[in-house]
Amino acid sequence: RGGEAVGIAGAFNRLPYYPDDATIKFDFGFDIKALVAIAPVDGQYKPAEQSTPVSDYNYLVIHGAHDGDVSTFSGLSQYNRIKYTRPDGGFKAAIWMYRANHGQWNTVWNNKDNGSFSVRSLQLKALIDGEEQRRFGRVVIGAFLETTLHGATGYMPLFRDHRSAGDWLPPTMYQTRYQDAATHLLAGFDEDVDVTTGTAPGVKISAESISTWKETDVPARSRGGTFKSNVVQFGWNNSPFGKDTVTPRTPAHVEITLPDSLRNAWSPNSSSALLITVGTTDVRPGPRKLPRDTTKKDSTAARSDSAKAKAKSDSAKAKAKTKEKPKPKKPVKDSTPPDLSVELEDTAGQLARVTLSSFGPVRMPIEAYIYRRKGRDKTVFPTLSEPVGTTYVMPMSAFAGVNPAFDPTKLKLVRLVFDRVKQGTVTVDDIGITTLPPPGNN
């Protein structure tokens, strides 16, 4: 059970006793520096009935969108549980590969995720070529081990943004998650049920003109499964509602404010970067209602009984006419990706705004059809897309490039401005600040 077992090995390596029977003494202490999980499950074994805790290890997990055995990215649960207690504890990365399956990571299992019935049950034509899938595995696992075991820092950009690998990687779609031990979390959304507070002490969160604002667990593609990590969901609609449909509305936005104490402790600078994990959805909130004019007299109170009766009769006639009309055509789904802007502000009021998409593709949810029989995926899975999310690593130097007067050392707040599309909903997780090392040449 190589996928899940590497996390268990990492945990057991540092334990003095077997957690399910403390009469058995452990004495491992191997010099493990890195853990690699390939399409793992999670929770088949729980030490002392607890989800396997792992900390201060370099961790890489990869998974395919068309996995016909482990049909959801279960390794994200272990990824989310990995904690770092010291700044040199390492980094973790998760990479989701479109069209990859479970068996093509090696040359023996190949496309038979469902055994001998795979040809009849699975959508094999959707799979990427097996050698291409293994090429991806060789590149990312090789780069990960060169980085974590040999200190080859030149490969690090691959884990922050897969596009840096260029044509080393097969041409398909990827979703990547990243975090390192040097990351200071502003908001991870797992610590409490107060949506106005962040993870670090004193961090405040506020929102303006938002249609949806809530913290929630992330549902996995498998029925009833979750990734055991809360995210915050923001929905917006910047179009007006009512007679005035011409005057533009102020775009909805969210602010994450740093207290002075954190800024002094973390010392952000031009070598720092903002990390933010964003997941897209196809939910489109309705228009925001205009505020009710309280200066106008309520004329309904003066209506006579006969007028009310007439209105009731007219309403009934209108409903009858509506029933006779043919049903309107189902509107075409809006396929515009919910891009947004990220704006930083310093204590002097200097602003620097960039678009999220300038640091990586923002795509609508990516659907994957695993089964050959039409309609079966919809009956087996609650959703056809896996809500993995993507971590965007945004260097402070990019913000200073937009406005040279912006000073990263005086960072005051992070503002998410929903100004790129009129309406949309996204999930946001793990907003933090890290330090980027100088580019490596080895």
Task: Summarize, please.
By secondary structure, the chain is of the alpha+beta class. Helices cover 20% and strands 24% of the residues. The chain starts with a helix and ends in a 7-residue tail after the last strand.
Question: How would you explain this protein's 3D organization?
Answer:
It is a single chain. The chain is built from nine helices and 15 strands. The protein is an alpha+beta fold and 442 residues long. Strands 5, 7, 8, 10, 13 and 15 form a six-stranded antiparallel beta sheet that branches. Strand 2, helix 2 and strand 3 form a beta-alpha-beta unit. It is globular. The two termini are 34 Å apart. The model has no long low-confidence stretch (mean pLDDT 90).
Please render the helix and strand layout as text.
Layout: H1 2-12, E1 34-38, E2 58-64, H2 75-81, E3 91-97, H3 118-121, H4 130-150, H5 156-160, E4 174-180, E5 184-187, E6 204-208, E7 212-219, E8 226-237, E9 253-257, H6 260-266, E10 272-280, H7 305-324, E11 341-346, E12 351-355, H8 376-380, E13 390-395, H9 396-402, E14 411-417, E15 423-435
Parallel strand pairs: 1-2, 2-3
Antiparallel strand pairs: 3-4, 5-15, 6-9, 7-8, 8-15, 9-14, 10-13, 10-15, 11-12, 11-14
